[in-house]
Every structure is written in structure tokens, then in C-alpha cells.
UniProtKB/TrEMBL annotation:
Residues 1066-1079 have a biased composition (Basic residues). It comes from the Eukaryota. This is glucan endo-1,3-beta-D-glucosidase. The lineage of its organism: Eukaryota, Fungi, Dikarya, Ascomycota, Pezizomycotina. PROSITE patterns: GH81.
Amino acid sequence: MARLRASLRTPQVVPALVILLQAQQALAHPFVYRRDPNNGTGARQLLAPQNAVPQSIEGLETTSWPSTTCTTITGWHTTYTISQIQDGQVQAPGFGPTSLPDKSVVTTSTSEALVTTETTIIEGVTVTSTATREVTSTISSTIEADTDSTSALSSTSTAVLAAQVSNSTLSSSSTNESSSTSLPSSTNFTTITSSTTPASVEASPTPTPSTSTTLLDVTEASTTVAVSTISSTTTIVVSTSVPDISLTSLTTSAIQTATVPVLTNTTGIIQTSLEAGGNPTTVPLPTSVVNVTSSLSLVDTSTLSNVVPTNTANITSITASDIFRAIATSAPPPQITSRGDHPVAQKGIQPQSERIGTNSFHANLFLADQAYPVYTFPYSVSWSNGTGQTGSYGMAVSHTERNQLAFGADEPNTGAWKFYANPIGIQSVVLSATQLGQGTKLTTDSLTSFSVNVNLTPGGASSPAVSFPLVQGMGFMTGSYHGSTPTVSSGIGINSITYGGALAGNAVYKYRMALANGFTWLIYVIPETTNYNVNSFTLLSANTVQGPSGFNGYIQVAKIPGGNSDAESIYDSAAGAYPFSTSVSGAVEGSGGSYSLTFNKTGMQTQDLLMFALPHHVESFAQSTANGLTSLQLITTTKGFGIAVRADSWTLVEDDLPIGMSFAPWRAGQGSIASVSSAATALINQVGAAELNQNITLQTDLDSMYYSGKGFAKFAALIYALHDIGGDRTLALTGLLELENALATFVNNQQPYPLVFDSKWGGVVSSATFATGDSGLDFGNTYYNDHHFHYGYFVYAAAVIGYLDPTWLTKGTNKAWIDTLVRDYANPVTNDPDFPFSRNFDWFHGHSWAAGLFASADGKNQESSSEDTMASYAIKMWGKITDDTAMEARGNLMLSIQARSLRNYYLYTNDNAVEPAQFIGNKAAGILFENKIDHTTYFGTNIEYIEGIHMIPLMPFSTFTRNATFVQQEWDTYFSNGRVNSITGGWRGLLIANQAIIDPQASYNFFSGSDGLYQDSFLDGGASRTWYLAYSAGLGGAPAGTKVKREDILEVEQETMEAPIEPKTLRRRVSGRRRSSTR
């Protein structure tokens, strides 16, 4: 890991950074960062025994108020130490005689109760506590505690508590399952000590902590982890539930304040490593190039008179009034057999007719333990399931600020952050019900690409206590209650709650909840009935607000950003309305297109619907939608500020679609370029003839859909270049017949791992995992990873074949097989019985997600933005060749949306104002997650890998999505002044092909051999020298007319590109290989 830093500044206190060192082999995150609580003030939770409600504990001062809601413990002190780090091990001595579990809830209602809690507080150490107590009434008690997980507990430094509770017997034990944490053998020796001391019962300002820092250098893959220690002050709060009779009704503006100092917790977890599950271990470039020993046998073209290319004259306009039209309605071709035993269960999913998106934002809710967050932007939402500071079983909504980011050490070449990530696990607000406890079940229904409905049902119950409609961009977190007793909790701590009165004709009741981190959240209560007891919500403790029993209605919460005086009134105008789903529609007319996101609204129809738009949305809003922009902004995790919009639907416009882009090199202002100099034509044919001697079958009939697809695309581009640019029909048709024969193996489903139709999830997947049990084979294809990458190459190759030989489209199941691949990754309708809508491309985010059925704490992710756009380009060209105008139009619109999204979130020019200024120097994102961006790859950290994965493959669309300004800045940052010459292998050829976008002459000189630098080893097995020659020549390296100058390229681009909105303007307007969490 890189040395972590945390930008956690507060006006008064220098923050401390705490790193949780976990076992090296621990799944998904060998290093986890935990942020200081209290926004960097150093306050931390205190470990305490919590097996029963204390009445008397030897050596401790306790205070009880039987008629009130709180019991506090003070005077308990503990110190813990990592005694030594040596020989690559963190030595963790055994526990002392007193157990220190993280949390326990004791509920007693008879004369005797037995509770056993098993909790891991330090990686590898399990603590078991038991408590038996006689009581005469029902009390639910919670003592919340935390430990600085960078430390192991030493038996010599752990305070021994002789706990003697009257009428109780307390026994504790601890089991040291693993007393060491593996670190590299070169780890430096250091000692870290941390202590915590509780505050007194009296309400008083939190004292300024003393903070000391010790760095722990871990030498592993040239990375370092920083470890800090803190001393701090805090209070333990024991909260108890109370009956309705003790709830109060406040007058407007009356304030309830916590009766004890607030227990704050802004501790979060940062995943600083890439999560396991199908990740790649090898570079995604095929390396084998198999040549045949005999000379190429040319076909007799006189026998192929019916093989005539379709008419692809440059067109400038398309008309498609509805771009979301079904591709096909029949089942996949019969050679793709069906099976229903996919190894991933549909956990908690209720039956529905619409197929479920495996790569959608809500997948964490039906994967693993269902507790990882889902990211709606700007909020994240997760099922607490008894964990975290609150111990609630409800749904937690979290929002983090930029000053809470953790970020990696500066990159050596640029000084930019290596990564940045938002802490997870902070329970800003939790909506729950008292009926929810152990045994609570989470189910989902109404799953679409944009939304999901989440239900929490008490153990043993048949209907949910509360439901949560989650929609991308939602302005409020909404909980719908079904006759249950609501609770609103916060793991940060509640300073006070203020009743704000009734709104919307006395239909909405408002509260302001001030949290301990200085931010205020609004609570809106909307009861179903008119006989609601006004203001029945009461602050019970510094962590919990409780409402009346038998409540029917819904509760909404939203965060007020700092420094925005209009935010509250904007929220007020929309409270009571919320979306339950979203639908998308679109059309293309001429050279422009538009799409609309319609939010299906429920609740109070008279209230405005408030949704948050991302930067790429705002840039493309139609004026009618832009009129709804407000001054309310919340920072999102990875996509700049979300801006609140009052509107039931958005219309977004893309004015300059790449309609005329075909198979030839393409540049804005010039269109497709199939004419090059005569010298270039001769060289293209000469090199092409040599490369056709390679064995096409041996480079395509592989056990990987990804590598096979790349092989097909390689030869398709080569054959096209020979036909349309080289003008050698004989060579081209000779290669074409070989390519058709090779693809027939896959169409007939006779490849090493045939495709199967997965009837459980709805998709065509590789049978590799079914055959081997290895979920990571072929980049996790069986688990729906990377389908658009894999299948996009096949679709492109088929489009080239269908262009050169239209008769191929009518033979057998050729077209049906390719259509099936398109339906799998880019299905345009929601009522297809076999495939979900738009598995990969996210119409809200404007790009695709590659990760499939693998749970991830950081949400969905995608690595290769260029293979993403390749998939869209492929369906554009397949639609063009098959006369599917809706598909062709949709592909054009998707490319335009992706170009906009990529320049905001993936490919950073120097004036990018969306991502943190400290990160854009990296130029390319690396891997974009919903919750973090990591400037790396799954297969290595070489800069040519990180930047190059966003180049591959170089195709006509590359100049559209990778504009010359960006390419020039990226080149100057990493590869200029001869630095590219130090790069070897296929990445060298890729980088030089990319150079053609800004300096086609230099690129052509390289591939033509005129500069003396070219070697065949600089081509990877998925690229051809023939295509690179045609590409660089067409872009200006060897044009048919006047040569193109670099400065002319940049000038034309500036004239044809739509300028992004300036930040100031925006403010004025709105006041066998593994690859899983993938590329």
C-alpha cells in the first residue's frame, strides 16, 4: 500500500490518522484505514464491559436514573500496546482476564436471562462474553465500545476489571485464535502505544486530545503505510427504549438536547487494496502470434462475385424516434444450451418479471452478507444488521465530505495522489424500527437498472416493518413504515433535535437533527392518517430518536451542506415526494440526439420532486431541465458535486453525434478517412499479406472469450484495412473467408468453453466456471464480469464481416448469435424475457460498470474506459450493417454520452474541475469505483499499464472519446522526450498508435520502420501492424493530400468540441486468469 494520508483538517485540531493493520491474507483488504472520530478531533470510543446493565461495578463510578433513558459509566481507563514488530510479525500477546467485546445488547424480561456475544475486536482475536442476570422488568441495554484496531492488547497493559454486579453474575473469556498479523519480513521495528480515558458525566466541551504519531514503514511493492496513535476522551452511553407514554410533544422550535456528553463516531474504513474475486494476474494483452509455414493461398475472387460490401457512404444524419426498440424477442440460438444452477444465489430477491441487472448499483444488496453499501449519489446506503456504532438493524445513510478523504502517497512522476477513497461504515443516520433486531431479514423487490425497493422484516414476521425505495440520484433517504415503531439513530452522535413545525398543509412534520460533527440533517415525518399525534418523536439518548408505535407513513432524511442558507427551504419544498423508479427514453434526429430520465414519483404529488444531478448531466441539460437547477449541492464520492434539481424528469441533449464514423480512421471535422498516400497503400498491403500468414484459428479458438474476441477484432480490422484502404480485394477476401470459418466455431458453440444461457440471472456466460469451479476464469465471465469488453470485440468483428460479405448475415444463426451477445450486454428493453435491460451501460452515470456478481465495499467499478466505448462503437456499427436504425442511433448516442462522462470522471485535462485537484495530474483514472478512484490496474502498476488500459483498442472512436487536448497532456506528462522508448512489449506499440491522435507523422514513421525503431515485439497479439499503419496514415501520417500538422489537429478539435461549463459559470447558474472487480 502507498503511504496513506488523510485530509481531515478542522479549524481547531490537527487530525490523526489511524491505520488498521489486518492479516496479510485477509480477504479484500490487507490494510484498512480507520478515520479519527469527531471529524479529526481525536475523540475515540472507549472499550467497556457491556454484558449487563451495570448497577455497581467495583472501581467504577456509575450513575443511574431509573426513570430516565440513560445510564453512563465513567472512571474506566484502559491502555493497550503493540509491544513489538519484528521478523515480519506483529506480536500480539494474549488478552488479560477481562473480555473486551465490541458491543453487546442484553434484553431481559424474566427472572433470569443468558446472553452470549462473540465479537472480533482485533483481526484474528475472538472475544466471547456471557452474562446472567435476574431482573423484574424488561430492559434493553446497549453499551457501545470501540478499540483502536491498530493495536493488539497486551496482558500487562490491559486494565483488569473485577466486575461485580448486584443480582448478576458476569463471566468473560477470550480466545486468541491468531496472535500475529503477517507483514513483510523487511518491516521496521517500532512500538505504538495508545490510551483512552472517559469524560465525566457532566456536559462539557470535549477536551482537545493530545496526539502523537509514529510511522510504520512497510516495505512491500514500494509502498508504505503510515500509522498514528491518539489519546482521547469520550463517554460511554447506555440507551434504553421507553414506552409511548413518556414521549413528549414539543412546540415549534423547541429543542431536545442530549442529557450526557455525546458519544461521537466518525470512524470509517478505507479499503486501500483491490478486492479479491476474479481479479486478473496477467496483462490483458494476448502475446502469442502463430504463423503458418506455407505461403498464403489466395482465393479466386471471380468465384466470390456475390461478396460485395454494403453501402457505407458517409452519412450525416439518422432519424430514430425511439432508440429503445427490441433487438429480438426469441430465445438464444439452440446451440447455446440453458442451465439454472448458477453458483451465485439470488439472496433475498423477491420474484419479479423483469430480469435483474447483475452489474447494477444495487447488487451488494443481494450478494455476500447484503451489508455492503450501495451508492445512490450523493448518498451511500447500507444495511446495519446489528453492526456499527448504533447497533441498529435498520438502513444507514451516509454522506462524506472531501476533507474526510484518505489518499495515497504522491505519484513520483506527477506529484498527484495515487488514489483517493471515502471512508465507509460511518452511520450518519439510520432509519429503523424497534421491531427490528436479531433475525431481521433483508429482501428486495422491483429491481431495475435505476432503482430497488428494500424491505426489512423482523425475524418470524411475514411482512416488513419498514421499506426503502432506493433510486439513483434521490434527494432524500425515504423509509416507508408499516405499523411499526420508528427510530432514527446516528453513529456520529446527536447533539440536539429541534421541532420545525408542520409543512405542506400540516401533512409533513419537520425536525432538525444536529449531529456531533457539526452538520445538521433534516427529518421529515409524513403520517398516513390525519389523527397523527403531532410531534411524537423524542430524543431518547445521544444516539437515538424514537417515534410512536403503530406508525404508518414515511420518514425522509437529508443532509444540509455547510454554508448554504437556501438548502433547508429547498428541501422543505420537496419533502413528502419521492421517486420509486426511473425510466429512460431517447431519440436521434439529424446529427443530434437526446434522452430523458423520467422519475416515477409517489408520495405528495403537490410537492416538487428533488433529485441530484451529476456534472455530466448538468452540462447537457436541455434548457427546460436547467430551469429546475437549485443552489443545493452535495459532494459525491467520486463524481464531484451533485446538484439538486426540481423536476419530475430530465431531458439531456447531445448535439454532435459521430454519425458519419464508420470502420475507417475518423477525426472530427474530417469524418472517416479511407484515402492515404500511394506509398502508404503499398506498405499496408505488403504488411497485410505477411500478417495474414498468421494462423487465425490458433489466435481465436481459445479458452477465453476475452482473448478470442480480441483475436477476431484484430483480424477484422486488418482485413478491413486491406479492402478499403489498401484496395487489395483479393488479399482481403482471402482473410475474410478464414475469419468466417474461425468465427463459425463460436457461432456453433464448439469453442473450448462453450457459452451457456444462465436461466437464473438471465444471460449468456462462459461455461468455464461451471466446468472448473473457478469463479475467476476468463476475467470472471461466468459471474458477469466484463461482458461488454468480451462481447464487444465479437460484435465489431461480425460487423466487419457483415459489411464485406452481406450474405454471411443470412446464413444459419450468424446474426442471431451476435444479436444474443448484444442483448446480453446492451439490451435496450426492460421486458425481454431472457436478458436484463442494459447490463453494463449505466444511463445515469454515463458509462458502464464492469464488475458483476462480486460484492464490493467500494461499489461497482470499471477499469478500461476505452473497451467500454469499444462496446458502444460495436453496436453502432452492427446496427448500421444490419439496418437496425434504433441500434445504430443508440450506439451513436451512447458514444457521445461516454465521451462527456469520460472527460469528467476518467480522462483528466488540466482544467478538470470535477475530481480533486490533487488527483487530476494522474491524467487517467486507473480504476474508477463508485466510492474511490485508484490510479493502478488489476495486473500491475507500470504507468504504461495504467494509462494504456484506457487506450486499448485504438479504433475510429478513439479520437472522439480521447480528445487531442487530453492525449497531448497525457503524452507530455509520461511519454514525451524519448521516454516512450524505454517501454517494451506490446504496450510500446499501443502507446505509439495512440500518439497518432496528436502526432500522426511520428506514429506512422514508427510503424513504417522509417525511424528505425519498430520491432515486431512491440505488437501485442491483439493488434496488427497493418491496422496501425492504416490508422496513423489516415489520421495524417501519410495522407493522400496535404500533411496534417499537430497544431492544426488541436485547433480543429477546439472548434468542433463543445466547451465544458466553467466552474464559475456553473456556480452562477446554480448558486484462467483472474479479473473480477474489474477492468
